[in-house]
Write the structure tokens for this entry.
Amino acid sequence: MKLSRHSDYALRAMIQLASAGDELVSIRRISETYGISHSHLMKIVQSLGHAGFIETVRGRHGGLRLARPAREISLGALLRHTEGEDGLVDCTGCLIAPACGLPGMLAEALEAFLKVLDGYRLDDVASRSHVLRALFDRPASAGPGDTPSARCDARPAGP
């Protein structure tokens, strides 16, 4: 299983906001930190805002912050929001769908995956906020391999 880029970027943004505490963080700053398209990140932020995960403050000195404490935000709930309710496979129109047991098994596996993540909170991921803040505050010109986006690829190597 592989999380969508939408979920990946949402998690990255949420971690940065969690590490900032009550400070406001601009979309531009998050975008530059991770090398994420500003317009793509705006769509993600809007979705997270509508779902009640973050709040936005408009104006010259505005920005983003978590809508509630990081200890109250379940990673499972966050991923359910960003990944949606679709299953791992779409069996619409498949010849063997009426007799195939795979969709049920995959749905069970996905629910088990999310149940594990229900046991973790955003503050579990961002518990070393002082270290995270130092990494986020590094200049973009720190060199190849020295940016959070270069170090933060949780996908395993291989197929």
About this structure: Confidence is low (pLDDT under 50) at residues 141-151, 154-159. The CA atoms of residues 73 and 93 lie 37 Å apart.
